[in-house]
């Protein structure tokens, strides 16, 4: 019912310390009298500075105590507390923690009601809970009582649960929709049914820890440290170092021992393979989710599936079925199937193990322009220039699941990996954003310029939009605002695709009307490389999801080009050699260059 944490043991679940105030440690002298630990042989020991390299010493020490407890070094944590004189938590915080974890809901509320907001804090409030700015005390009480209600239902104490709902939850006037949902749980047949419908794991699962985690976010961090604070700070350090690395090409997490910097020579700037098996323009290239396949399609009516990293042809799809060019393809999430979108007004589903046609979806009066897979891998969505069926969801038998019944054409689609955002690009200058879970329209963005492609980041937060006016923009899907702009490539009258990629998706990659391939650093928008790609036009680019030093491009010259570095060239040649040995073939139809450095 509440947001879950990262699955690691939470310090809010176990603590042997008390947090929020400092004390001066006392020791026992030889004559039985107590003396300050700061006194040694009658002389005053120099006072420790208040800061540690400019950081507040108490904050640093408490974070270290928490981190040591997180890692299981409880004796060390206690030792640091004794030696430093700083406590991790005050007795009030410890009591509140214990009350929540033990299910003592009355005690938990009593401690919470004694809390004060920062503006109300007085010198007498030092032992109480101090709420974070903007925290809602009644909402916190609602969460506590909701847990109490669910646990009573789980124990099948229905009458007591109803009493909590009517006399404790309802008077708080918080979330009416949630109240209606909670009341519906009374009709559940069993505790397991309650857990399933409420997405709640019960009193003996982690639900109390999750509740405590949610409550702790509403308490001032100076009183109750946010969970895993040191780990969060270290993640931020690594993220910032990656953002500052112009040629980030290492998928491994940076070391904490030294500042992070990638070698420019590892960056994929070398055209290691030219593939010219297509007989016409190539409009799109895209890697499979596991990075072991590459699909390309275009004007010649066929879709070619390549093995990676040998880049031998696995399948040629649609030689008989497609009656016009193919503008878009989409791999299923398990990479066992692929949907092809054709200008002949059909969408087709193919088996990638056999290369056979599984399904033909053809109720369209205009070309099918785009397709994406639902997160469940059991259905897919099509975008079409046909206004009567511009955005539809289909099951694997070709039955329509849902029709958004829009009155605008769709030229491109993208669906976030978390299944929340469905974004459709029309044939003019609008982006239409839907909540895929509820199937409801959320909002619209007008860019006053024709759009050429859209794609959503792996973290489901950002939308990359390519524009005809020689610019790409990165939007925050939550705030609905642009966060970065990229320029240097050229647009045109046709579809030019861009993509996010590289290690930690640190780069924006785009084709261009002038045939070049442009790579920008995502965070800074600095141009990293401008490569001579295709002639006259580079239509599409795709970065391998598993290899940060490998991407593909295609263009009107009928070629698919593979880009990597010296190591990528070596891996490809080894894979090709092994493939040829196993099949007895001498060539796969591609024209590669000599290994870099070879004569």
UniProtKB/TrEMBL annotation:
The lineage of its organism: Eukaryota, Fungi, Dikarya, Ascomycota, Pezizomycotina. Residues 1-43, 577-586 have a biased composition (Polar residues). It comes from Apiospora aurea. Residues 96-160 form the CTLH domain. Keywords: Repeat, WD repeat. SMART domains: WD40. This is WD repeat-containing protein. It holds the Pfam family WD40. It comes from the Eukaryota. InterPro entries: CTLH_C (IPR006595), LisH (IPR006594), WD40/YVTN_repeat-like_dom_sf (IPR015943), WD40_repeat_CS (IPR019775), WD40_repeat_dom_sf (IPR036322), WD40_rpt (IPR001680), WD_repeat-ST_regulator (IPR051350). SUPFAM superfamilies: WD40 repeat-like. Residues 1-54, 577-599 are annotated as: Disordered. The keyword Repeat applies. Involved in the proteasome-dependent degradation of fructose-1,6-bisphosphatase. The keyword Repeat applies. WD repeats lie at residues 275-316, 319-360, 531-573.
């Amino acid at each position: 019912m509440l947001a879950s944490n990262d699955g690691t043991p939470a310090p809010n679940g176990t603590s042997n310390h008390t947090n929020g105030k400092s004390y001066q440690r006392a020791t026992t002298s030889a004559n039985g009298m107590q003396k300050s630990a700061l006194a040694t042989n009658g002389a005053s020991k120099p006072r420790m500075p208040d800061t540690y390299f400019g950081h507040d010493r108490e904050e640093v020490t408490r974070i270290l105590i928490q981190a040591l407890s997180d890692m299981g070094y409880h004796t060390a944590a206690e030792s640091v507390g004794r030696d430093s004189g700083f406590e991790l938590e005050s007795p009030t915080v410890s009591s509140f923690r214990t009350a929540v974890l033990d299910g003592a809901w009355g005690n938990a509320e009593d401690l919470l009601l004694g809390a004060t907001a920062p503006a109300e804090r007085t010198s007498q409030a030092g032992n109480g809970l101090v709420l974070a700015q903007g925290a809602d005390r009644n909402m916190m009480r609602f969460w506590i009582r909701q847990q109490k209600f669910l646990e009573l239902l789980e124990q099948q104490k229905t009458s007591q649960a109803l009493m909590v709902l009517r006399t404790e939850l309802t008077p708080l006037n918080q979330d009416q929709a949630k109240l209606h949902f909670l009341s519906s749980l009374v009709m559940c047949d069993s505790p397991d049914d309650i857990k399933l419908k409420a997405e709640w794991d019960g009193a003996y699962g982690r639900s109390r820890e999750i509740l405590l985690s949610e409550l702790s976010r509403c308490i001032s961090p100076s009183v109750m440290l946010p969970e895993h604070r040191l780990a969060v700070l270290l993640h931020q350090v690594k993220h910032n170092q990656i953002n500052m690395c112009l040629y980030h090409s290492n998928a491994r997490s940076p070391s904490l021992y030294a500042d992070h910097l990638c070698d420019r020579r590892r960056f994929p700037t070398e055209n290691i393979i030219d593939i010219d098996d297509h007989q016409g323009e190539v409009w799109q290239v895209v890697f499979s989710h596991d990075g072991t396949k590459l699909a390309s399609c275009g004007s010649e009516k066929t879709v070619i599936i390549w093995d990676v990293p040998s880049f031998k042809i696995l399948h040629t799809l649609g030689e008989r079925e497609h009656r016009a060019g193919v503008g878009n393809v989409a791999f299923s999430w398990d990479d066992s199937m692929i949907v092809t979108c054709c200008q002949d007004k059909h969408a087709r589903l193919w088996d990638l193990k056999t290369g056979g046609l599984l399904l033909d979806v053809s109720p369209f009066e205009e070309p099918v322009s785009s397709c994406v897979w639902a997160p469940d891998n059991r259905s897919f969505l099509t975008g079409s220039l046909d206004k009567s069926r511009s955005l539809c969801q289909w099951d694997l038998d070709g039955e329509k699941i849902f029709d958004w019944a829009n009155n605008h054409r769709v030229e491109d689609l993208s669906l976030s990996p978390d299944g929340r955002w469905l974004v459709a690009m029309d044939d003019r200058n609008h982006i239409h954003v839907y909540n895929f879970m509820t199937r409801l329209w959320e909002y619209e963005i007008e860019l006053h310029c024709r759009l050429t492609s859209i794609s959503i980041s792996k973290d489901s937060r950002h939308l990359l939009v390519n524009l005809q006016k020689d610019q790409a923009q990165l939007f925050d899907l939550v705030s609905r605002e642009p966060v970065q702009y990229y320029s240097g490539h050229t647009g045109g009258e046709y579809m030019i695709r861009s993509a996010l990629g590289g290690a930690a998706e640190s780069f924006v990659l785009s084709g261009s009307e002038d045939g070049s391939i442009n790579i920008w650093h995502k965070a800074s928008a600095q141009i990293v490389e401008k490569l001579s790609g295709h002639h006259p036009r580079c239509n599409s680019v795709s970065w391998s999801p598993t290899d940060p030093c490998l991407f593909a491009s295609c263009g009107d010259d009928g070629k698919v080009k593979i880009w990597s570095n010296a190591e990528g060239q070596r891996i490809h040649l080894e894979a090709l050699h092994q493939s040829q040995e196993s099949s007895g073939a001498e060539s796969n139809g591609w024209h590669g260059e000599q290994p870099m450095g070879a004569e």
